Amino acid sequence: MTERFTGSFTQQEPIPKDAIEAAVGVMRHGRLHRYNVAEGEAGETALLERDFAAFTGARYCLAVASGGYALGCALRAAGVAPGDTVLTNAFTLAPVPGAIAGVGATPVFVETTEDLTIDLAHLEAQIAASGAGVLMLSHMRGHICDMGRLMALCDGAGVTVIEDCAHTMGAAWAGVPSGRHGAMGCYSSQTYKHINSGEGGLIVTDDAELMARAVLLSGSYMLFDRHLAAPPPEAFEGLKAELPNISGRMDNLRAALLRPQLARLPDQAARWNRLYRAMEAGLGGTPGLRLIDRPEAEAFVGSSFQALLPGWPAERVEALLARCADRGVELKWFGAAQPAGFTSRYAHWDYAEPKPLPRTDRVLAGLIDMRLPLTFSQEDCAVIARIVREEVTRGQGLRHGASDGGADR
Ligand SMILES: *Cc1c(COP(=O)(O)O)cnc(C)c1O
A Pfam family this protein belongs to (predicted)? Predict the structure, then answer.
């Protein structure tokens, strides 16, 4: 009998009870706006900022309306102006170049390695060619590059690094939390990320001026003294008239949903990694399928899984996707000619006039991707892995079980 998978790749866990109760508490008193607080009350948004600053070890934190808003706000705070160029990964999600375009700047894409991280040699060449002063570094799908080398390169060239940590909340490189290597770190609390408030974003930094600018930009109505993780009022003095109010605040309802989830994130990350390792164990050694190496220094959160089909022609990948879908396994493919759902790639972003990037094209042509929601069990992962393994083996033109090309990692 042909094995099928019947679970849902997009079903997240319910919101935990204590988070629901906290949110209901906010609705009961009605003070949803972050600056609408009773005498002596801090407000859930300010408390979330305090909690998240502590979680990442940052001095300052600002909660905003979405991950994409966080990226745009960080770019503006860093002084990116219309007409500037901003370096970013060619392999990322549409809101990243979108945030760059949103401030009137132009994304300059950097090649992707077979480990799905930014190509540092190409980054060096693109810094020289573009003269860009900012890199928006996207830790796409949770893969973190050698941050020591990246920061040395950028510091040496005077390039400010803003980290897009939409997939690395709770992750670290060499013991330093993701988002804490560059000047600013940006996170998302959108439903498909690591904590879920539907929409939401967070920005962290140790730089008082950058944070003062971000707070004013986010729409603080000069109420910045109600923040618990912002610099002191003096830091805002010279800036108040200089920065536009571009409203994108978080509200107390979402913050209330997030605080109990943040407290659980380390446990959730451990659960995600058990699913990831189960998938890795099930797929390891499949002929024709190359898994992604996870470096020692990288403490990742395995909320999604990627693998490469090196050298597979598009028709063969498409046929594989169709066979897996028939068996209930929804693989996403970054090599498709047209953007679909959440999956698009740099060549689809015409507004940025992308130049061809052959290494990225080669990698993405064979890149398959799936979410690992926490509603999956390790047994679910084993079932999915068996299905993908059988279908890749079939696509590879080998009979299932005929060979164990265990070295192909
Ligand atoms: C989701 C995502 C964002 C933006 O987050 P939103 O909260 O959806 O705006 C940014 N970068 C990456 C890589 C993402 O996946």
Answer: DegT_DnrJ_EryC1
